[in-house]
Amino acid sequence: MLFQSSHASCGLTVYETSRGGCVGRLQASFRYLILQVEWQPVHRAASQLRVVEFKAKEPNHTCGELCWSHVDEEVTLCGWVQYLRQDLFVILRDFSGLVQILIPQDESKSELKNAFLGLTVESVIMVKGRVRRRPEGQENKKMSTGEIEVCAESMEVLNTCRKLPFEIKEFVKKSEVLRMQYRYLDLRSPRMQYNLRLRSQMVMKMREFLCNLHGFVDVETPTLFKRTPGGAKEFVVPTGDPGKFYSLPQSPQQFKQLLMVAGIDRYFQLARCYRDEGSKPDRQPEFTQVDIEISFVDQAGVMSLIEGLIHYSWPEDKGQMNVPFPSMTYEEAMRDYGVDKPDTRFGMKLVDVITAFQGTQIEFIKDALLKPGGCIQAICVPEGTVRTESVSVAPVRADGSLKSPLSRLLSDTRPLLGKLRLQCAELLECYGVPVRDPSVFHFLWVVDFPLFLPKEDDPEMLESAHHPFTAPVPEDAHLLYTQPHKVRGQHYDLVLNGCEIGGGSIRIHNASQQLYILDTILKEDPSLLSHLLEALDSGAPPHGGIALGE
Amino acid sequence: MLFQSSHASCGLTVYETSRGGCVGRLQASFRYLILQVEWQPVHRAASQLRVVEFKAKEPNHTCGELCWSHVDEEVTLCGWVQYLRQDLFVILRDFSGLVQILIPQDESKSELKNAFLGLTVESVIMVKGRVRRRPEGQENKKMSTGEIEVCAESMEVLNTCRKLPFEIKEFVKKSEVLRMQYRYLDLRSPRMQYNLRLRSQMVMKMREFLCNLHGFVDVETPTLFKRTPGGAKEFVVPTGDPGKFYSLPQSPQQFKQLLMVAGIDRYFQLARCYRDEGSKPDRQPEFTQVDIEISFVDQAGVMSLIEGLIHYSWPEDKGQMNVPFPSMTYEEAMRDYGVDKPDTRFGMKLVDVITAFQGTQIEFIKDALLKPGGCIQAICVPEGTVRTESVSVAPVRADGSLKSPLSRLLSDTRPLLGKLRLQCAELLECYGVPVRDPSVFHFLWVVDFPLFLPKEDDPEMLESAHHPFTAPVPEDAHLLYTQPHKVRGQHYDLVLNGCEIGGGSIRIHNASQQLYILDTILKEDPSLLSHLLEALDSGAPPHGGIALGE
């Protein structure tokens, strides 16, 4: 948050924060883009954009764009005083970068010199001057404008700056609290400038792809809405009418389905969503998702669209990106990685070592194998990293023998081994063993989720694995009436480097099937969704969609 | 609202509704675009957009795009049954338009024929068939696909439709309540489809102009925020912490100013805003504005940018639009039109007829003239419409003589005459006299507003004419300390055909000037805005902006 607030200390919603900060899921994906690549100067991307200028009084150039081709030109620059050097130079900064201003040393210009020397850092000034090549040997190769400097001819202080609580420098480590309190100072750093500008550009490319190339219609849906049954806890907004409240929606799910019924065959929106669940590292009370819904489409169609969308909007400086993305069933993901959002940048898959224990005398293993479906799972740390045994992070050896701490975990082996696998990777990396290449982006589809799961507090009952609007896989539909727990849903998750960055489904468009699922299977009160059931009965087309950053 | 709700019966926020419905100010401008021009078929604009296709199972064509060049082609179409005709034809509709499907009459295809004849209107079907030229003499020139028809070879019912509460036809007048309750049916009408798609395209052009051509950064700002002093009543959102509430912001005003302090020199956002003031024809509890802020800019720069923006995003089918827009001072607007948002599509200006009454014996006029600043104003209905005297709508004759009902209104003549002027225009139009050309768009800047106005309930005190962050006109700044009521603000309103569709200002960037205005002039508690004052003191650049649809 730009201001102090116990609940919403999360900054302008889109801003990347340091690790452990509050970053929504869409942000999580952007964080990947941003944190794991080499630093790129801001000005390259940004200054290219200034194609057409509107009439602004000042300035006529940006700091970062100046180079040898501007030599001898008279320029007007506006920016912030980064620092003074040797009473000779002011380093001036704007969004595009830094430039060196030469303070006149001439006696006749002592007034101007004194004005420069009296500047506090981060004050805002306007400088007029002439660009010149720096004297030989004084070039700065590390600075994009390091070949030139601007000989100041006049200077106006537009605003003076007080003593700040921290310096605007990349290498000054600031506490998270201080960064949040003085968000407007934190955002002046090149890194934060880059992140904000990259997000804006990437979102723009997505809009071009959807709106201009594929005829999607950008529709804004209301955020003052009524309560949605089930799902996350919702924020309420009291109305002037006592006892009546709006709800802030968790997603535009119902609206977008109704837009399909309304004949808006291709809908998208960058939708603000709300969940009253407090802040976690990857959850914020408000967040934004790229929300998409399409009529007359199947699962392959949605997946293909999203691959095209990401490919099109992918930042050039992040390297090659390949489509289509690989795909994996939920069953395979759980079997091989112990999780439904596997990080496929590295191996160390879960393996079944049951054959190694045929006829074992180890009691707890014998017991486990006697149970129905009993098995023995292990993580295989491959040859290349076996040397890490010396740092004791591999509780399961490549040969399959088990270390004792695992004995307590046998009951729910896979998810636990899945977590262990990730912790192994982290530990190995802490000790300098490369496991995950930070510059690669492994996208992955996970499909064929179960449509229902046993309720946690009442395993006899079923609840929706995602939400009650997901359509069954057609060949499983007949099982709805006999063995609903065996039905797979037409649901797909998009996973990036072990983070779920999107999810969607083909929806139910048949009112009686929707009613059966709500009423008979989920035992929910269908009257709460009567408006949706009525809409499905009013000529609803088959439809499906996805939300990125959900 | 898509669903019934007493408070939020306003539909998806962007939707144009019929007169008297709930339309926000941004919408008001779109409504102008939409209501006052001839109806354009949807498919032209929309079908051009389908440049690149992603892999979707079905269909391979849209209804509205078919023409003679598709003759003999095998096509798959998905859409809604518009109606059946003579047991021979089904008229199929999708977003792009209508096409005629020929039901096979062959005995061997009686099953298919019966399936067609059993269809209810608005059911969703998939048809495969071959395009053929209609037999000679059977072409329909009124239909864009009227040269061809599709001979059905197979048909699948994707969803059947119940009996609907109203028909999806332009000419069926529906009540506002029914349209709101069944929004998904209302939106199927060509007019609503066109409106939604036009808005999406126009907004996309605006984004291109700002983001791609001018290097603006699209930044999302939080909507869960703290209370802003002054202004409209805000919605509150209770937190989990008893007694603590978020506020839903009326606008991102503070955020965008802080972004300027943060060095985001060109910011824009399509921002959702909230006002807890109930629904009026031109006010909704939530609405969207095009929010813009720029560093190192002056009033002329902002105005020029907006002219460029509107020119660039102007729909082709709305005719020529000229920039720059004319400009008028607040004083001129009040003097000539009696209002600060004059409809300049027609004359009938307020004129001073004081000379005609020199030496008059009419008592109340004599009295009025004796008062300080006393004057006589009249509306001049020009020659061309003087014939409307016969329908008694011109209370003031062109020769300047006054009708008696005006005598009671002399105390606050201009705003009242301003309203009268508009009512005259409406009345004249009711009687068929053309006054305002419904196809023209008169944009107008109104500038040089007073910075402060006397408070309504305490005229000794001053309040901000717009908001307390507006900077004074530089040459008036010294009057702040002596005659603040005489200070003009660097505020500008954009007016279209008598509607205020935008407003903005150059902001105060000097902390001590901001403090003086809050504390000494407005007598507000400056501690409520201490974060902003602190930010202005931390190297705030000069900046200004605007909001369209405010």
TrEMBL record, chains A, B:
It comes from the Eukaryota. Keywords: Aminoacyl-tRNA synthetase, ATP-binding, Ligase, Nucleotide-binding, Protein biosynthesis. InterPro entries: Aa-tRNA-synt_II, aa-tRNA-synth_II, aa-tRNA-synth_II/BPL/LPL, Asp-tRNA-ligase_1_N, Asp/Asn-tRNA-synth_IIb, GAD-like_sf, NA-bd_OB-fold, NA-bd_OB_tRNA. One of its GO terms (biological process) is aspartyl-tRNA aminoacylation. One of its GO terms (molecular function) is nucleic acid binding. GO terms for cellular component: mitochondrion. CDD domains: EcAspRS_like_N. Transmembrane segments: none annotated. Residues 196-550 form the Aminoacyl-transfer RNA synthetases class-II family profile domain. Belongs to the class-II aminoacyl-tRNA synthetase family. Type 1 subfamily. This is Aspartyl-tRNA synthetase 2, mitochondrial. It comes from Sinocyclocheilus grahami. The lineage of its organism: Eukaryota, Metazoa, Chordata, Craniata, Vertebrata.
